[in-house]
Amino acid sequence: MNDIVIYTTQVCPYCVRAKQLFQRKGLTYREVDVSFDQAERMALVARTKQRTVPQIFINDQHIGGCDDLYALERNGQLDTLLNT
């Protein structure tokens, strides 16, 4: 079972794309909406050194953003990561 966490905001089209990929693959994820939670956003920045969303973690490994997620998918590495 994979632990997938995606940090999002309510108006982020890249967040929607990332979630759609997980949904197409039949994967469940935990979404952390940082739109109005400044403390959670600052915790995200401290953890990733990034201010942008989405920020995606699979099994506690920081994957990056939407482009990074889709690059893993194109290269066949996402399924490998999910199956380890």
Question: How would you characterize the overall build of this protein?
Answer:
The protein has 84 residues and is an alpha+beta fold. The chain has a single domain (4-82), classed as Glutaredoxin (3-Layer(aba) Sandwich). Helices cover 45% and strands 20% of the residues. The chain has helices at residues 13-24, 38-48, 66-74, 77-82, and strands at 4-8, 30-33, 55-58, 61-64. Strands 2-1-3-4 form a 4-stranded mixed β-sheet, with helices on both faces. Helix 1 (13-24) links the parallel strand 1 (4-8) and strand 2 (30-33). The relative contact order is 0.21. The mean pLDDT is 95.
Q: Any chance you could write out the topology, listing elements then pairs?
A:
Elements: E1 4-8, H1 13-24, E2 30-33, H2 38-48, E3 55-58, E4 61-64, H3 66-74, H4 77-82
Helix pairs in contact: 1-3
